[in-house]
Amino acid sequence: MQVEFIFQIAILIMSVVIHEVSHGLVADKLGDPTAKLAGRLTLNPLKHLDLFGSVIVPALSYFLGGFIFGWAKPVPYNPYNLRPGRWSEASVALAGPASNFILAVIFGLFVRYGIGHGFNEATLHISSLIVFVNILLMVFNLMPIPPLDGSKILFAFFPEKTFQIRGFFERYGLILVFFFIFFIWQFVAPVIDVLFRIITGIALI
């Protein structure tokens, strides 16, 4: 169990770091150097780890639920520096989940190929964990609840006059996230199983 926990923690850290760096890279490409100036465009996990989200929450989720979940410190960016247009902020938000999807597909294809070619079982297990963790991060972050990435993507479709509505939801975003986790997530979680099966060709155990 301890070895499994260490592997899942390492995979989670790798995945959330790539997720956050992707936000920063796209923001930089769209004109905002905030993340670069803060030294956050690096894969060094020490620059991104958050004590609560990267250590305490993953440990609790593993020992209480049997799986790892958590987050890193959000990469800072200034939406006012981005290239004009409502889609710039949405592009920055989408970059994180997109990076998780790409990782899931890469390692999912490895699992598909490896099963048919007799790859080492431990290697396939680790690859499957990478797929699972990244699908979990992608699905969770795409939920349209502030401050999750999905909310910024959704708000890009709203007319500018609804800015006050966005402000209201962002003000109470953390409460909404906890409500979602405790009362709604159970209905969304099956999507992870479906995506895992589609990407890897095997059922999520």
Report on the architecture of this protein.
The protein has 205 residues and is mostly helical. It has one domain. Helix content is 69%, strand content 0%. The mean pLDDT is 89.
Could you provide a short overview of the structure?
The protein has 205 residues and is mainly α.
Distance between the termini: 16 Å
SSE succession:
HHHHHHHHH
3D shape: globular
Largest beta-sheet details: none
* DSSP summary, beta strand count: 0
How would you summarize the topology of this molecule?
Layout (H helix, E strand, L loop, with lengths): L1 H28 L4 H4 L13 H15 L21 H30 L4 H21 L7 H7 L7 H9 L1 H16 L1 H11 L5
Key descriptive features of the protein:
mainly alpha; single chain; 0% strand; globular; 205 residues; 9 helices
